[in-house]
Amino acid sequence: MKRIGTKGADANQEGVVIQGAYLFGVRAFEYFIESQMVHLCNPSTNWGPKLVNGKTRRFVRKVSESNPNRVKTVLLMGSSYADYLPYDRTEKRADALFARGRPFSLLEPKHKEVIKRAFTTRNLIAHESDHSLKAFKKVVCSRYPLTPDRRNAAGYLLHEAIKGLPMAKQDLAGLFDAATFLS
């Protein structure tokens, strides 16, 4: 993981810690998505319709299975593991399991935006490749006025853009809000 541009070991340690916590939070969100899909496929799950912002979050199962291992086999779609991010991959899996991909297709644009930002930042932390840096600059740096020494994952995560809250906290709160919407 790269240093964040401020000087000293303490700043570097803070950057490493915040990146680790962020990776954990994004991974927890991915785990939630998979768990919710498996849960909603179970015919004993009673998840009634909910009205949110004028949209009914009713869903109809295409796959009705109480064995979570069988549902996970469907989720894998022939692969050895399932990617849920970028979010369009979640929507593709949801389309296979539920009519019109509901409730996963009903996420609001604000949720999808924070998921995209979190996924892009997570990739930069995990890979530090030219490709991930280019995507980070396009998705994140173009939206937030980061100084040149802060145009990296730790710098962004520690950046206080709104209400004095670090972006790491804002992004993770946004993921929690998206998970709550899908619950």
- Mean of all residue-level pLDDT scores: 87
Helices, by number, come to 7
Task: Give the amount of beta strand, in percent.
Answer: under 5%
H/E element order = HEEHHHHHEEH
Distance between the termini: 34 Å
Question: What key phrases describe this protein's structure?
Answer:
elongated; two-stranded antiparallel ribbon; mainly alpha; 7 helices; 183 residues; 4 strands; disordered N terminus
Question: What's the gist of this structure?
Answer:
With 183 residues, the chain is mainly alpha-helical. The protein has one domain (9-182).
Architecture overview:
- The protein is mainly alpha-helical and 183 residues long.
- It has one domain (9-182).
- It is 58% helix and 5% strand.
- It has seven helices and four strands; from the N terminus they run αββαααααββα.
- It has helices spanning 9-41, 68-76, 87-97, 109-127, 130-141, 153-158, 167-182; strands at residues 51-52, 55-56, 160-162, 165-166.
- The protein has a two-stranded antiparallel sheet with strand order 1-2.
- A hairpin with a 2-residue loop joins β1 and β2.
- The longest helix has 33 residues, at 9-41.
- The chain is elongated.
- It starts with 8 loop residues before the first helix and ends with a helix.
Describe how the helices and strands are arranged.
Blueprint: H1 9-41, E1 51-52, E2 55-56, H2 68-76, H3 87-97, H4 109-127, H5 130-141, H6 153-158, E3 160-162, E4 165-166, H7 167-182
Antiparallel strand pairs: 1-2, 3-4
Helix pairs in contact: 1-2, 1-4, 1-7, 4-5, 4-7
